Amino acid sequence: MMEHIATTPFGGGRMSARQFQRQREMAGRQEKLRAGEGGNDTGRADKWQLMRALTEARAAYGIGDRTISVLEALVSFTTTRELDGSAPIIVFPSNRELSVRTRGMAPATIRRHLAALVEAGMIFRRDSANGKRFCRRDDNGVMEDAFGFDLAPLALRATEILEAAEAARAEDRAIRALRGEVTLHQRDIAKIIACALEEGRAGDWLDFTARLATATAGLGRRTAPDLLARRRDELITLRAEVENTYLSSLSEQEMSGNDLQDEHHIQNSNTDSSFEISGCEAKTGEAAISKGKAPEQKMAVSLDRLMRICPQIADYTKDGIRSWGDFLAAADLARSMLGISPDAWRKAKAAMGEQAAAVVIAVLLERGEAVRSPGGYLRNLTEKAGRAAFSVYPMLQALERSQA
What we know:
Keywords: Plasmid. Residues 303-400 form the Plasmid replication protein C C-terminal domain. The chain folds into three domains: 17-156, Arc Repressor Mutant, subunit A; 171-248; 252-403, no CATH class. Strands 3, 4, 5 and 6 form a four-stranded antiparallel sheet that branches. A two-stranded antiparallel ribbon has the order 1-2. Helix 16 packs across helix 17. It contains 19 helices and six strands. A hairpin with a 5-residue loop joins strand 5 (134-137) and strand 6. The chain is mainly alpha-helical.
């Protein structure tokens, strides 16, 4: 048991009023703990749990990861798993051994981080008369005096550090949730805008794109929470405007989600420019749906008209397209060039019919890079066709409007 320990630094090191006050406060707490007057505060903690907590709460104490590495090296010199702050916990490693346990850190760097730990109140210096770190033991091997670094302040602050770590975790969870919210709003807005541009919807989509870029500019992993919250609110407002504009551009048939109803009623005063399904074909489709099968969509638009809307598919034939057979053969070749798998192509033809599937391929060729994943796009339409919720006619109309 050490009766007298050093309280001032060796050599040119200065003793500040704050350090002196901390030592007096610690000595008072230690006396209370030894007298059993500490209450719920035992002054004890598992050293590795405490180091983990301090790592999580390091920002609250203004210390960095390398400073914590030096403290961890000091803690590793203690012989027990638990730190008991009711008495001095003095470790006295040599400079060489301390450098080894800090993974080869330079002595000058170690001294700088040790000073940071003293300043943060995590350790005290207990310097000998000549500044050396060592201990004296009696004839029975019991330590009488020790000079080095006292870890008792760390143990006495265990409760405070654990609470700070919990607060840091809570803040981190809140920031992650906020960052995730911003990302989801950004993704949804961008996809709605991209969909509207592909479909040629009415609306100031370029202005929305510019506002989205402004709202997400400069955001990164280290963005402050208050800035994230402001950007989140901006994105919520922008998302509402984008969604309302998109929904306002939908027709009543599109709002109902019934594409077959679109096919029954899409008409134009100029019969040459309309896409229609005859009553016989509509009844056939209804019957097929009632039997649980996707109907074969018969094209009620002339091949010449279709080629004027989708001319690029002719590039996939040798002698041009003169019949529906030529059109189907060209679509089969084009789908492979688009990277659409044979399985996806087979399912598309089974769900929507050969002619309608071929028209989808022709439309994809016209859209070009606007559709990033033709295979995924076709599978999505195939799934809709299986539910009788897909028609090629709105696609052709949208493409024709965009060309006009």
